């Protein structure tokens, strides 16, 4: 029996009927694209093509078209990689962890958050690929039987762990997301009038019949996948952090990294969900489903994770001082007082100071402010990765090799390009996929029949015309 | 006769009736039912070949045809039809030869592979150079394959044949009444003999010799681009001999140099290096003490124990002050002109010189014969002649006389010179417009340049000389020392050796080889005491060098008679006054007087002091720059400010860089720049020769008073090292003073690396344990098993010259990447020399506890201390540290490579499998020493590098070492400890059935290091030199506390100072 405390506010505002929900969510899919969507699509496509062009230039000319040098071997490439992977954390966290914790409010946001995850992981996966000097040999990182004698991958290398972690995460997230989509696709299929549409959604619905057995299996699979995905949420970024933590570079070689990276990832992931949801909610009129309550919950997550991140920063500083290791302490002194101090303080302001503004209920329930903050956090988290990666290696052990990193137009072009590619994917998702898991949302709809009691006959007849 | 028998296909053809003729018109003998076939709808549709199939076949056909057309081009390797006796493919041959470029003499061994010279190393049989080479010598192999070399003789800028050149020149030279030869200092007895005969007319105009009865001395004018006329003139005045003495630095316990960069550019620097460094070993009986008074921070200055920045105009004053100091003690009269500055340092130098009378050397870089006379007088008072300085055993490498060159120019200007042959020098470049105009007045001008240099393009006849690797030659650099040069490849182009050309024009058709042989048989063989000339010749050719008794000198009956007028010299010195900003011109180790300017490897060799490549610039004291508001910290996006430097009305715009140690009120500019390199159209750097002062008598001065003004604009500088100090990190650089080293224990100057264990002793203090105990891994199995290759690098012996870098570049096919890429921090050098300046804020005394000392050192706390440490001291101490892959037994790079492209060998080598590398650069990031180099581009083909990478054309590729892979784009590379040499050495030992003998395997860098700073060997061989370096008390490993367990050991630098001596 499902019981709800009377004081708890409903998760869906107003009194939409089941068909209202279906109609509202499927409105964009069943109608022609709006001008706004087309405009955004054009802009996103142009940016995406620019990014693709930059990538092709990079592949044609060489890694030298980036600003890297003998000292700084990774900069924007791996910064972007970690940033995108971090963003890709929120979706699975929302759908899997919150599912396990029976947090039903997740239903309104899990679909777009998961979509964001998938696309963010796509973008993330791009960078380790293109950062290779010889991308055409990229398949060598896979432990596949080969004819190079006894050559095998190096299981000691965190980069190899990355390969496994990211690919596992991507596949599980993708499957989880897709399983959730099946009942919704089936609904679209059933309502579709155009044959192509019917066929396509029919194929994607995998013959979903909607009978009780199917729903029961759906729930079970969801639960199993949630169980599978939950450890992945923590493992992926832990392993990404080990790229740095297992190295010998002061500023990288830090045991605090795994939890700190996971917290940071959730932090940035929720910020990105906020950024996207606030736009989607407004443009697609989903205020009923994605309520202030949701926004506030997510802001609370941001406060918590932001605080964890802040504690981690301070711990790092303290340990670097307390360790008495000359190189370690210099690495951190250099971070906040060296040539990249501006990046460090930018990171500190965005990630540590600004989230605490959300302690004010007024601010955390203010949509415009939340949107602004989500952007700030995204910027801050990008700088966090930049600070960790670049300021650690640009001045490591031997001062003779100290140098600076200056991005080239290709560095910038590819990063902006991935934002474009991501947007294209996301816009396509908004247009052709059900934005909300509406079949699930229906389960949290309060249907007391109260509204019917208060309805006049005419209204009722209008709503349910009797066929003769 | 052709066979006319005709065969018939059948009777029909024989008959050739009309039906056969008709049938023969059809291609197919039988009627084809085409029409029926096409008409019959049923067959057509029922046929098995459908339209789809047809399209399929068509598509397949097209695809197959186009694929067949895409066949990869076939490159044929053609085997020898008749294999040359000495050439075995895959096996290198070494030939002894001699390098001499007009200023540097170096006996060498040339490594050839399949008939191509690919590497030049020093010939250790020479007792002058002891196997030392410099960067210019070992990079010169690249200039052999330079596409910019002249490929045929030219008349008036048009290519022609040797026959027509010979025709015209024989005639024109015969007509010339006044024929002059302008040449670099000649050390080749045979060339001298040819020119002697030629310019004296004895060969050329034997019939009417009286037409041209001038002596050779007047007709062959020696010209050194960098003049040492002052020393030669002073020696003429002092000893009545216009020669250079030989200096025995190995015997000098006290060395005082005033402005002489005797380790890099001054006189026979190449010959002084080994002697000097042999006195720098603190473990020896004694260690020399070196005082250097100079204005620019020279390579020699960086090695000095005591360095005093002075103004160029004070060089004479300092010498006079030291002279007076010494004179006061030995009872001589004092001279005028002594400076009143630097009394403490002058006193200390004087005391040290006096304590080591007869075991000291005073040298000076001034080209003023008055100053040099004082130097001679000083050395004479100290009793150095006959002991550390030998004027009887003369060096011939510099013979030029400023006055004679001036006289020649005057004569040319007056139009009295009819013909001028220019050999080995580029006077239009070095002497400028005045010479060019004068050259215009000479009717017949002949240049023997190998490239179209400034002089060659102003000459009517260009008769390109062979490259030295294509030439026979001989040399007599120092009395009693002879060497032979032999060609190691046939001339690549239609060039002819200058000597042979002159012989031909003299009517002598002998080859230069025969001429040399005859010359040696006549003049040198009799002195040698050998029995058979053929044996003697073969031995010298094999050894490269030979020493024969010089003119009999009985030392005891020849007391050095010093006859210099020191008083007059002192009076003249007293008149030297500098004003305004004083300019001191200098030459760089890589470029020299300009001979290396067209060599991309040398251009990319960082200056040993400033670490800047590809440019010359104004060096200035950083404090003065800050006062003037110039940028002192350079970087990729921090360009240098531009200055306009004006001397005598001539101006140059050059970037200005901060040079710690530069005397205040002075600037320095390097000569030899302003030539174009490779296919580059833009010249590199600017030609500063116009700043060389020439007075009315023709005396040349490298010191000038300059006006310096800031100009608009910025200039990007390409430096390989932009951070100048070591930030007090004593686990990277360890240095101490001689008294601490002699009197203290190892813990005083080279304490073992320890870490706190976390366990406390009875006092509650944490116990320190050696690094080894904290190791994550067990010992690597290479320890004490089989070979364990490694190095021992003595920072006391390393002068920082950079010969190892160029040797490494040539041996390992390291690409040249050009200025823009160096600026971006992407030079590819596998071996670099880190140069650190001391900082005034560094806790020098606090070895072992730098961190703590730093924290307390600064009033502004740790952060402020670190910021202050970034600034070098005003007159810093300098240390050079060769840095290459440390071949860590617990390597950071090896664990992080996802595809195991870099692994450890069972001989302790950190190996790099280029073909396996996918280019994640993780290894480079995780390398604590930052020695890994990534192929950012396809340097062998990408258009950005076609101007500067000589390996982009077929000719330039000939220099590549076939034993070393040319790396592809996107892979990581690094020092392999010349694994190709290790393998070859092991194979030799295996063939001989003996263990590998220590020293038989050399890396490129260790073979180029004449001073023995870099010693390569088997660390498991307890008898090896490398092992003894490793077991030495001064030995430490860079940042050992990180626990990488490296195989490269460094020796603590020891300065000959007292602990708190400034």
CATH architecture type of the largest domain in chain B: 2-Layer Sandwich
DSSP helical segment count of chain A: 18
Class of secondary structure makeup of chain A: mainly alpha
Low-confidence stretches of chain B: 202-216, 844-858
Number of strand elements of chain A: 0
With strands numbered from the N-terminus, the spatial order across the biggest sheet of chain B is 5-4-16-15-14-6-7
Distance between the termini of chain A: 38 Å
Largest sheet of chain A: none
Which term fits the overall shape of chain A? globular
- What portion of residues of chain B belong to β-strands? 15-25%
Provide a compact summary of the structure.
The complex is a heterodimer of chains A (468) and B (1062). By secondary structure, chain A is mainly alpha-helical.
What do you see in this structure?
The complex is a heterodimer of chains A (468) and B (1062). Chain A has helices at 18-30, 35-61, 76-87, 89-100, 110-130, 158-191, 195-204, 212-245, 257-283, 292-323, 326-337, 341-353, 361-364, 367-393, 409-432, 438-441, 450-453, 457-463. Chain A is mainly alpha-helical. Chain A starts with 17 loop residues before the first helix and ends in a 5-residue tail after the last helix. The relative contact order of chain A is 0.16. In chain B, a hairpin with a 6-residue loop joins strand 26 (675-676) and strand 27. In chain B, the strands form 15 sheets. Chain B has a 7-stranded mixed β-sheet with strand order 5-4-16-15-14-6-7, sandwiched between helices. In chain B, helix 6 (135-144) runs parallel beside helix 28, helix 13 (315-330) runs parallel beside helix 15 (369-381) and helix 30 (850-857) packs across helix 31. Chain B has 37 helices and 45 strands. In chain B, 30% of the residues lie in helices and 19% in strands. Chains A and B meet through helix 6 and helix 11 of A and strand 36, helix 31, helix 32, helix 33 and strand 40 of B.
